[in-house]
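Q: What residues go here?
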């Protein structure tokens, strides 16, 4: 079965950290730019970060710059999102996606999504 599976979400206090993982099964992530998206209740889906297939290029939405770091380990077929200094407004379901036509994350907001994970809940609350 071809799928992406996210893990690592949970409940954390403001200022805390979490590391999300996105693991692929049934296919290799090597040739894909991978993005993290999030969606909070009542809000539109938001692109959070993207990493190119080689890992040499990364992009972040403005609100997470300096706090979140995206990385990948192609040998483990996994992408990570390290989230530090978490804020209540980061609360959302986080999904990872394998992109087609992202061109090294230069057009990640409009790229086609080949694979989409089921999501992991991140809740930031005291």
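A:
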């Amino acid at each position: 079965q071809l799928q992406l599976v996210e893990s690592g979400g949970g409940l954390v206090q403001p200022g805390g950290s979490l590391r999300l993982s996105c693991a692929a099964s049934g296919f290799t992530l090597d040739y894909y730019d991978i993005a993290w998206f999030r969606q909070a209740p009542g809000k539109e889906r938001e692109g959070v970060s993207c990493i190119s297939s080689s890992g040499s290029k990364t992009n972040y939405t403005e609100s997470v710059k300096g706090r979140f770091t995206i990385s990948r380990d192609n040998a483990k077929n996994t992408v990570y999102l390290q989230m530090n200094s978490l804020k209540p407004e980061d609360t959302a379901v986080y999904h990872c996606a394998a992109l087609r036509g992202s061109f090294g994350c230069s057009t990640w907001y409009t790229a086609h999504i080949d694979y989409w994970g089921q999501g992991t809940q991140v809740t930031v609350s005291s």
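A: Context that may help when evaluating the design: The radius of gyration is 13 Å. The chain has no helices and eleven strands.
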